[in-house]
Amino acid sequence: MDIISELRKRSREKSRTIVLPEAKDSRILEAAKIIIQENYSNIILLSDEEVLKNEAAKIGLDLSAVKVIDPLKSPEFDGFAQEFFELRKHKGVTIEDATEQMKDFVYFGAMMVRKGMADGMVAGAITTTADVAKSAIYCIGFGEQVRTLSSCFLMSVPDSVYGEKGTFVFADCGIIPDPKPAQLANIAKASAELFRLLVEAEPRVALLSFSSKGSADHPMVDKVVNAMRIIGEKFPELIVDGELQLDAAIVPEVAKIKAPDSNVAGRANVLIFPSLDSGNISYKMVQRLAKAQVVGPMLIGFKKPCCDLSRGCTIDEIINAVCSTAIRVME
């Protein structure tokens, strides 16, 4: 069974509740229809109910099978605005500002996750990554151990012998342009935990560079070396190595030459990129040229799961985002 089919199966078994705040987008409604039909997850749609009835009727979406909330008419609205004000007043946010912010359905959805009314949120079909991330930062909040927001992708490359039978996690591919060593260390930790949860296999983490084990001398290489040192101090349990070039990280024959003493080289399944340039370009290249199946961008570092969507997302990508978010919910 391929990893995507496995994620959908496990999501069905979990039976979590995911809020979709962008019900005005037709792709979200089409995805919700399939999710409900296949019983992958329980769904909350945020929308004006009368508008949603008309749109749902066009595609045959049974609204009796989902929970529909209009944030502007919700009895929770004032309480959410008050709590948002308490959370952000130290930054100069007024109660009027907070009330206005809660009119944004993505922020309302994130507050639902904070309050336990939903297990996770998927948004981004019509909202920028920056706005989805801010809603999660302000409303859901960071986890205790890894206080670095980043994003990663689950990549499933067909007919590949590399990684975990062609499956990888790539990070960070969407948030931090030039991560500092401490941020790279946190990204490595959070990505490894996500890989273990979604793939149910041992993560082997490679900190990527254009250098392998001192083959080049440059401040960008030093950054990766310093990240490796921090990981050793903060997360000694991680199976990790770096700095490694991509071929040394995943190809056993190359690893024997470039990093013969490494316990990760040639076998890496979690790839940590040194910059957003390299991470974003790489995941899109693998997706398009190798026809990889992609899940994400999954936002990591928060107390509760949140998944961003590309504004060019497909219906299948929305379904996979919902399923992966459901699996990430902790007991």
Task: Give an overview in words.
This protein has 331 residues and is an alpha/beta fold. The protein folds into 2 domains: 3-141 and 304-328, Rossmann fold (3-Layer(aba) Sandwich); 150-289, Isocitrate/Isopropylmalate dehydrogenase-like (Rossmann fold, 3-Layer(aba) Sandwich), CATH 3.40.50.10750. Helices cover 46% and strands 15% of the residues. The protein contains 13 helices and 11 strands. The protein has an 11-stranded mixed beta sheet, with helices on both faces. Helix 1 (3-14) packs across helix 13, helix 2 crosses helix 13 (315-328) and helix 4 (77-88) packs across helix 5. The chain is globular, with a radius of gyration of 21 Å. The mean pLDDT is 94.
Helix-strand blueprint:
Blueprint: H1 3-14, E1 17-20, H2 26-37, E2 42-46, H3 49-59, E3 67-69, H4 77-88, H5 95-101, H6 105-114, E4 120-123, H7 129-140, E5 150-156, E6 167-171, H8 181-199, E7 205-208, H9 219-234, E8 240-244, H10 246-250, H11 252-258, E9 270-272, H12 276-289, E10 293-300, E11 306-308, H13 315-328
Parallel strand pairs: 1-2, 1-4, 2-3, 4-11, 6-9, 7-8, 7-9
Antiparallel strand pairs: 5-6, 5-10, 10-11
Q: What would the CATH topology of the largest domain be? A: Rossmann fold
For the record, the count of structural domains works out to: 2
**Largest sheet geometry:** 11 strands, mixed
Mean pLDDT: 94
- Number of helix segments? 13
* Low-confidence spans: none
Strand residues, percent: 15-25%
* H-E string: HEHEHEHHHEHEEHEHEHHEHEEH
Shape: globular
If you compute it from the alpha carbons, what radius of gyration comes out, rounded to the nearest whole angstrom?
21 Å
Distance between the termini: 25 Å
In what order do the strands lie side by side in the largest sheet?
A: 3-2-1-4-11-10-5-6-9-7-8
Q: Give me the CATH architecture of the largest domain, please.
A: 3-Layer(aba) Sandwich
Under the CATH scheme, which class of the largest domain? Alpha Beta
Helix/strand-derived category reads: alpha/beta
Number of strands: 11
Share of helix among residues?
40-55%
